[in-house]
Amino acid sequence: MAPVVASMASRLGDIPPCAGVGLKAEHYRQIIEHAPDVGFFEVHAENYMGAGGPPHRYLGAIRERYPLSLHGVGLSIGAHAPLDREHLARLSELVTRYEPGLFSEHLAWSSHGANFYNDLLPVPYTRETLDRVCDHIDEVQEVLGRQMLLENPSTYLAFAESTYSEPLFIAEVARRTGCGLLFDVNNLYVACTNQEWDSASYIRDYPLQYVQEIHLAGHKPDRDEKDRPLLIDTHDRLVDAPVWRLFEHVIGMTGPVPTLIEWDANVPAWPQLEAEAARAETILATVRQGEVRRAALG
Amino acid sequence: MRPLAERQGAFAGGLLDAARPIPSGLFGPDGQASLKRFSVYRNNVVVSLIEALEAAYPATVRLVGEEFFRAMARAYAVAHPPTSPIMLGYGDGFADFIAGFAPARDLPYLADVARIERAWLEAYHAPDAMPLTADTLAPVAQDVAGSLVFQMHPSLRIVRSRYPALTIWRMNVTDGEPVSVDLERGGEDVLIVRPDVEVEVRSLPPGGLEFVRTLAAGHCLEQATEHAIPIEGFDLAANLAGLLGAGAFIGFVNSRTRG
After folding, report:
1. A193 CA to chain B: closest CA distance, Å?
2. Per the domain annotation, does A6 fall within a domain?
């Protein structure tokens, strides 16, 4: 299948290159009553696959006021098995209903046989996986009629059979399918720490030109049995200092892109999330001003 | 090179069974196997399922305490992992599992409290529909009322308990007030429905469960009344008013003129 053209992504409700926040049920009322100044909200698609009820009520009201990004966590794009067509149809319904500015999914798998494992499991970076992932992304883009973004994983171990580095694998997927990329900078830091990869060379090999969104989140530090650092991608706390530094470095190269604060467990009161988003926004604004200055200097 | 299908089969097989050796060919940065690293995935899977159950069954958690609940939820999750990526629906067999869970035998009402919580969750996510109001029914002539067949609200659920499970549930939700409960005092029948935004949980009067169940099966008002009337204390007018007030109906047809 021919790559999906990039222009398909720009439609209703475009996501601005600003800081956004992952939408949590705990904050529905606060957001509707106080209309906080954030660039966009993002939701997990599967949380809105119920038939009706308050989640749709609130999401509809928030969608009227803010750009929305849709983030899938259950499509299992990295599985060997074919995609779940019913699930893809449900995603398509959500895309039609809420007209999100972006749709993203993970380079991971979570279904096998009859079971759904509710976690983003890692894939070996082989030619076979590459072909499979590309076929699945082609199918997603065809069914949804739009470009999707693929997110890099946080990983805890490596596969003996891998023959590509992660950034080169992702570059090849993007080149072959025409998908965009969601660069999760926390995942980058977690994976580089856990795998003892050099983050500078990861970024050098990673195709930054396809990045349309960034994720930032907190992780939990642990150690493995040989006392090596093992970072767990928990999304339950503040963004760590080295992740902020990597974020500045990355957007220094890509320019400002929509940047999401993800906080999915131990969800804090709204002001703390808003403060994290404001911190990201300050960094984005610095880059924006730098671009304006460069443009003015000609 | 290990083909992907075989690799994912072995990986998946090791996730729920912590006693299994970890799959081969999975390495830390030194190229050596690492139980701790594979265990991160094991832990993520099982803990995420336990947390999904905790979120869906908060009163059950309060009744048994977090430690007991997590052990019970772990046993359920490992035996019954989800089969759908929509986690909103996970745990539909949990109440039945609790009923057969030996360590919870001392709390015979626990499974019924879980059934109420499950019905609440299903009602919360059910399709939206506008309930009938009492004045819609007012113009119906008395002599045809018996042949009316009601269309029930898609969120409507009923739970029958041999124990005062509704009273116990109420005490164990947010802002619940403790009251003394006599487990011997008899059972409670519960109606759960979400007419608009809020889920309504109500006690059904005597015969109410038989009445609403017969209506929900598509029988006319007269047949539902016949089913419920042998039950001592059944009051047709009160039951009908209660169901209308709860928003249990979304439409009706006259079964005599239908078709």
Report:
1. 10
2. no
Task: Name which of A91, A155, A71, A79 is nearest A116 in CA terms.
Answer: A79
Instruction: Name the pTM for this structure.
Output: 0.94
CA distances for B190 relative to A48, A169, A199, B165, B246, angstroms: 27, 55, 58, 9, 12
Instruction: Note the pLDDT of residue A298.
Output: 66
Q: Which residues of A touch B49 (CB under 8 A)?
A: 118
Which residues on neighbouring strands pair with residue B254, listed in sequence order? B148
Compare CB distances from B88 to A49, A129, A157 and report the shortest one's residue: A49
Contact A119 B45 (CB under 8 A): yes
**Which of A84, A211, A106 is closest to A152 using CA atoms?**
A106
**Residues sharing a CB contact under 8 Å with residue B37, sequence separation 6 or more, in sequence order:** A156, A157, A194, A224, A230, B26, B28
d(CA B31, CA B25): 9
User: What CATH number does residue A49 fall under?
Assistant: 3.20.20.150
A2 within a domain of the structure (yes/no): no
Cβ pair B52, B91 in contact under 8 A: yes
Distance from CA of A168 to the nearest CA of B (A): 18
Domain assignment present for A3: no
Angstroms from A73 CA to nearest CA on chain B: 8
Residue A131: which domain range? 11-297
Q: What is the pLDDT along chain A (298 residues), one digit of tens a residue?
A: 333 333 333 334 799 999 999 999 999 999 999 999 999 999 999 999 999 999 999 999 999 999 999 999 999 999 999 999 999 999 999 999 999 999 999 999 999 999 999 999 999 999 999 999 999 999 999 999 999 999 999 999 999 999 999 999 999 999 999 999 999 999 999 999 999 999 999 999 999 999 999 999 999 999 999 999 999 999 999 999 999 999 999 999 999 999 999 999 999 999 999 999 999 999 999 999 988 888 887 6
Q: Are A48 and A95 in contact (CB under 8 A)?
A: no
ipTM: 0.94
Residue B86 to residue A158, Cβ atoms within 8 A: no
* Interface contact flag, B41 A156, Cβ < 8 Å: yes
Q: What is the DSSP string of chain A?
A: -PPPPGGGG--TTPPPSSEEEE--GGGHHHHHHH----S-EEEEGGGG-SSSSHHHHHHHHHHHHS-EEEE-SS--TT-SSPP-HHHHHHHHHHHHHH--SEEEEES-EEEETTEEEEEEE----SHHHHHHHHHHHHHHHHHHTS--EEEPPP-S-EETT--S-HHHHHHHHHHHH--EEEEEHHHHHHHHHHHT--HHHHHHHS-GGGEEEEEEE--EEEE-TTS-EEEE----SPPPHHHHHHHHHHHHHH----EEEE--SSPPPHHHHHHHHHHHHHHHHHHHHHHHHHHHH-
Structural domains counted in chain A = 1
Q: Which of A75, A110, A115 sits opposite B83 (nearest CB)?
A: A115
Residue A35 lies in a domain: yes
Is residue B72 a contact partner of residue B111, using CB atoms and an 8 Å limit?
A: no
DSSP symbol at B23: P
3-state secondary structure of B133: coil
